[in-house]
Amino acid sequence: MMLLRFMSEFLSIMPTQLPDLLPRKTMEDPVVYDDYAQLTFHPSKQLTIAEVADQLEEQANLTLLYHRVVSEGLRGWQCCCAFSKPNNGRMYKFNATAGDDGIVDTITVCVFESIEVMRGTLRLELQMHHKAGGMRYEMGEAELIKLFY
How would residue 88 be classed by pLDDT, with cut points 50, 70 and 90? Predict the structure, then answer.
């Protein structure tokens, strides 16, 4: 099964690229679906959502899809999503969530089996978060689609 191979490749590369964000010792059991695998990590360092987004972009060469703040009145609950560009041969989506204290406590990674499923998932997620509001940054849907063609 290709998905298991992609997940194995991810686990052999990315935790060494992002050791503070993806410590293997905090990884929950993987959940494997038909078209993707979901991996959940709990960072070993206390980092804000902005620090996590920077690491994803700079250390892992990922592209930021959005950064959302649920309430401007709260310091806390924020989320961001970053993904690997399809032309690099990797199909990953990272979601980071910060709690009320403003510190990221969970990073969920989806490893996709097909580019079509990845593209559809990213588009749907961007649309859902856009409707909910509170976007500090969001990639335009046209720009996202352009990356896949």
Answer: confident
The domain ranges of the chain are 2-147
Q: Is the pLDDT of residue 96 over 60?
A: yes
pLDDT tens digits, residue range 121-133?
Answer: 999 999 988 887 7
CB of 113 closer than 8 Å to CB of 36 = yes
Dihedral angle computed from the Cα positions of residues 35, 39, 40 and 45, in that order, rounded to the nearest 10 degrees: -140
How many whole angstroms separate alpha carbon 31 and alpha carbon 53? Answer: 24
Strands 36-41 and 63-69: unpaired
Residue owning tokens 């992609």: 6
CA angle 45-55-134, nearest 5°? 95
